[in-house]
Design a protein that fits this description.
Keywords: Dioxygenase, Iron, Metal-binding, Oxidoreductase
CATH superfamily: q2cbj1_9rhob like domain
Strand content: 25-35%
Distance between the termini: 18 Å
GO molecular function: iron ion binding; L-ascorbic acid binding; procollagen-proline 4-dioxygenase activity
Helix content: 10-25%
InterPro entries: Oxoglu/Fe-dep_dioxygenase_dom (IPR005123), P4HA-like (IPR045054), Pro_4_hyd_alph (IPR006620), Pro_4_hyd_alph_FE2OG_OXY (IPR044862)
CATH architecture: Sandwich
Bound molecules: 2-oxoglutaric acid, fe (ii) ion
Number of domains: 1
Largest sheet: 10 strands, antiparallel
Protein name: Fe2OG dioxygenase domain-containing protein
CATH topology: Jelly Rolls
Structural class: alpha+beta
Order of helices and strands: EEEHEEEEEHEEEEEEHHEEEEE
Cofactor: L-ascorbate
Amino acid sequence: KLESLAYPESGLQCDDHQVNTHILSKDPLVIYIEHFLSPFEADEIIRISAPHFTPSTTFTGGTEKFDPSVRNSSKAQIPRTNLVKCIESRAREFQGWPRDTFIERLWAQRYGTGGHYVHHYDWGHAGGRHSGRRDSSFMVYLNGGSEEELQGGGTNFPRLEPPKMDDANSVEARRWCKFIECEGEKTVAASKVVDGVTFKPIKGNAVFWQNFRSDGSGYEESFHAGLPVTAGEKYGLNIWSYRHPGHRPKV
Ligand SMILES: O=C(O)CCC(=O)C(=O)O
Ligand SMILES: [Fe+2]
């Protein structure tokens, strides 16, 4: 992991950027972020990633494998343009510039119809002889929001408790059902019904969550999946924050 960190650049100039945050859970911290990227930024990430896509792999017991039954998508390491560096910087700022924590080089992901990523943790190698850990994750949606463009492909957390909603007309339901799948929606019927909370892929929006407690133990609630895309194509952006106490960039 240490080889693939994107160190912040001093003197980087970025425009101010505003997001809307919706807290789904405080422990673990899980936040749905509206407008994490502007539509222009989302399009630009897709454009500069396009030449770099290769089949996605997974790691089991230290070996890299391509297994479409586990993860069926393509991934691209994104070139570090100024726009990308500003998004890295935004992701650090969002978390309060945590100590000893670095953004990993950004990856774009593309799922075709039928593409998916089964339930997993983003923990990577934690503990043992590895003293670093993938502390937090952002899943940023680069497209989606209309049925013509994309159906299915939500990000599901089976162990998170859905927000309390007394009825479909409550303040909570009217707020949340824009961003998570609610009972009776077509989107749920299109894939199979799954437990927990499923965030909708909507262009520019993101889900942020914490993978570890401060004592270093992993959150079981951070277990998640990219549900199958049932129509169209889905583009996502992964932003992982790697915490490694004592690590400093080489100068
Ligand atoms: O595509 C998604 O919604 C989730 C992707 C994911 O979990 C990952 O890339 O680690
Ligand atoms: Fe993941």
